[in-house]
Amino acid sequence: MKNSLISIPREALAELLQASGSPLTPEEYAASLPELSTYKKYAGRAWAALISKYCILVVAILSVVLLPILGFDVENLIIVVGLATVTFFEFRVHSYFRENNPKAPSLGYRNQSCFAAAILIYCLYHAFFTFQFSAQDMNLVEENNLIDPNSLKSLFRLFYLCIAIIAGGSQFGLACYYRGAQVRPKA
């Protein structure tokens, strides 16, 4: 058998396969096993998940600490719950990669893709649908000739679009990096 960690005589493997009810021959069984080099990528992914989980944990803790200051409205509560969920699954992704669990790449991809989508939705929503000045703020800006209100709206829109591209794009890049370690079945 190729790439085996433990040598086993062909006859003994044939007996084990037959006893387990497997229709495979020892050669077919050996061909169905993933290459040992398949899991070499997992160490790098585990390191990336380690960094990611602690970064997300810091942001999740900050969101909980700042919740009383920002207010207990529905949007802020959704953000806190979403960050807690992403953090929980990122801890699992890290442990799966450390344990060479083949579920790690798909779980990591789903977790980070959902996180990237949430960032994108949040930023696009705020960039195009929610930004409004109150009448009092508009009067203050116009009276003091601070900045053109339309320019200010454009700056806020640009800010949210940059966050969407940078944060959402980096999270989706991490998702693709995780998925790159996926074990592909042999044809």
Q: Gyration radius, to the nearest Å? A: 25 Å
Helix share of residues? over 70%
What order do the SSEs take from the amino end to the carboxyl end, as H and E?
HHHHHHH
User: Major β-sheet, in short?
Assistant: none
Q: Proportion of β residues?
A: under 5%
Number of helices: 7
Number of domains: 1
Count of β-strands:
0
- Taking the alpha carbons of the first and last residues, their distance comes to 18 Å
Shape: elongated
Q: What's the overall average pLDDT, rounded?
A: 86
**Unreliable stretches, pLDDT < 50, 5 or more residues?**
none
Structural class: mainly alpha
Describe the structure in your own words.
- There is one protein chain.
- This protein is mostly helical and about 190 residues long.
- The chain has one domain.
- The protein is about 75% helix and about 0% strand.
- The chain contains 7 helices and no strands.
- It has helices spanning about 10-20, 25-30, 40-70, 75-100, 105-130, 135-145, 150-180.
- Helix 3 (about 40-70) runs antiparallel to helix 4 and helix 5 (about 105-130) runs antiparallel to helix 7 (about 150-180).
- It is elongated, with a radius of gyration of 25 Å.
- The two termini are about 20 Å apart.
- The relative contact order is 0.11.
- The mean pLDDT is about 85.
